[in-house]
């Protein structure tokens, strides 16, 4: 069976591919976090895995199972920890997961690892995990790691097309047009268009406060409206993301 998914391969098939074609291995990282009433809790992991798979198919890569628990949801970009279902890990836990996983891929003989992050709050803890893993790996190891947030590969032209009335910024796009459109493209059966609220954009002060104030966040958890999301926009973005990430991987790792 031909597949890009590591968890659907036998160890023999995986090992042979690593040794013979030296493919890039993609590690999606997401979160289990509220995404309003219209999207599933697993949206971040689902989308990072889908983008990774679309990219891997273009360049004969392999996609590892997603790390599906992320760092604590923050009010200004994820709604916050007060939502039922949001299930987060401490920074050290995420750092350890990334560190151990990267180290394991090095042990397999992987030379090109691409970590595709789908949860805003994860960024610096993924970076720390990579850094610690690279220290652990013995000198002479061939592993190189690329870390990216998939949304950074959307061009201004595409964003203007998707947001003709103005782009509110990635932080406020939580559970809004980008994620909803991509989910409509990749997982339409998991989207409830009839439940999209007309909230936001949220108006946050230029500071944080602890404990977090849940009144800062719309009750739905959506930071700007997802009205206007559709599968066509999702397809346009998905194709651009896969093509541009593939181009970056090829350029960085000289993958052919």
Automatic annotation (TrEMBL):
Name of this chain's protein: Creatininase
Entry's Gene Ontology molecular function annotations: creatininase activity; hydrolase activity, acting on carbon-nitrogen (but not peptide) bonds, in linear amides; metal ion binding
Q: Indicate whether Zinc appears among the record's keywords.
A: yes
Q: Give the family, as the similarity comment puts it.
A: Belongs to the creatininase superfamily.
> What keywords are annotated for this sequence in UniProt?
Hydrolase, Metal-binding, Zinc
What PANTHER family does the database record attribute to this sequence?
A: 2-AMINO-5-FORMYLAMINO-6-RIBOSYLAMINOPYRIMIDIN-4(3H)-ONE 5'-MONOPHOSPHATE DEFORMYLASE (PTHR35005:SF1), 3-DEHYDRO-SCYLLO-INOSOSE HYDROLASE (PTHR35005)
Name its co-factor(s): Zn(2+)
Q: Which GO terms describe its biological process?
A: creatine biosynthetic process; creatinine catabolic process; riboflavin biosynthetic process
Q: What is the source species? A: Sulfuriferula nivalis
What domain of life?
Bacteria
Q: Coiled-coil region(s) at which residues?
A: none
């Amino acid at each position: 069976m031909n597949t890009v998914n590591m968890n659907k391969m036998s160890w023999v098939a995986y090992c042979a591919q690593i040794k013979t074609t030296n493919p890039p291995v993609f590690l999606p990282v997401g979160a289990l976090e509220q995404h309003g009433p219209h999207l599933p809790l697993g949206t971040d992991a689902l989308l990072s895995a889908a983008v990774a798979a679309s990219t891997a198919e273009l360049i004969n890569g392999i996609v590892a199972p997603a790390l599906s628990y992320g760092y604590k949801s923050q009010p200004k970009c994820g709604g916050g920890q007060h939502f039922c279902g949001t299930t987060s890990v401490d920074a050290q836990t995420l750092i350890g997961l990334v560190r151990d996983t990267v180290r394991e891929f090095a042990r397999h003989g992987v030379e090109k690892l691409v970590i595709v992050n789908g949860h805003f709050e994860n960024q610096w803890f993924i970076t720390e995990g990579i850094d610690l893993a690279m220290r652990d790996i013995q000198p002479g190891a061939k592993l190189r790691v690329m870390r990216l947030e998939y949304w950074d590969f959307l061009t201004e032209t595409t964003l203007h097309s998707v947001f003709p009335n103005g782009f509110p910024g990635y932080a406020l796009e939580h559970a809004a047009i980008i994620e909803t459109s991509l989910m409509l493209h990749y997982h339409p059966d998991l989207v409830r268009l009839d439940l999209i609220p007309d909230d936001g954009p949220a108006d946050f002060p230029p500071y944080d406060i602890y404990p977090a104030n849940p009144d800062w966040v719309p009750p739905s958890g959506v930071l700007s409206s997802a009205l206007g999301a559709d599968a066509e926009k999702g397809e346009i973005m998905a194709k651009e993301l896969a093509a541009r990430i593939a181009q970056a991987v090829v350029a960085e790792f000289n993958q052919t």
